[in-house]
Amino acid sequence: MASFNPWVPLELQAPLVGAANQDPVEATDARIVMTDNYIRDLKRSRNARVPIGRFSPETLLEIFFCLRDCWRTPVGAWSAPLMGWVAVTHVSHHWRTISLASPGLWTVIDIGRGTPLL
Fold first, then answer.
1. What sign has the CA pseudo-torsion 18, 22, 27, 33?
2. At what angle do helices 93-100 and 57-70 cross, to 10 degrees?
3. 39/41 Cα distance (integer angstroms)
4. 10-residue block means of pLDDT along the chain (118 residues)?
5. How far apart are CA 51 and CA 34, in angstroms?
6. Best CA proximity match to 88, nearest among 98, 79, 73
């Protein structure tokens, strides 16, 4: 397969394998997907190198459990944008993977009425 570099203009790159019979729009869409994947991988690589990205899963889970147990949605204030402690699951792919892999983290459901359901 031809190597793809998202930073080199398309005109200077070899066509992708099988792209000869492909519609130009579809070929461009395929390159967009490849570029998005390339950027995603770069971001994950960068996140793994910053200090907070090197916390152990156990340390992160302790932090997540503390946030979950300390956070209370104000009565009557629930709305989709107000995610409370769950917002930490959107910080990085690593944090999301760790949080979703921990069933114990999801045993308390706060419905915004002052007392969480257990």
1. negative
2. 70
3. 5
4. 64 61 82 89 88 89 90 58 77 92 85 56
5. 28
6. 98
Model pTM score? 0.60
Cβ–Cβ under 8 Å, residues 22 and 30: yes
Structure tokens at 59: 């340390």
Cβ-in-10-Å burial (0-12, 13-18, 19+) of 99 comes to buried
Please list the residues that pair with 109 across neighbouring strands.
117
- What residues contact 65, with CB distance under 8 A and at least 6 apart? 104, 105
What pLDDT does residue 17 have?
57
Q: How high is the pLDDT of residue 64? A: 93
Classified as helix, coil or strand, 47 is helix
Angstrom CA distances, 64 to 9, 17, 31, 45, stand at 43, 45, 37, 22
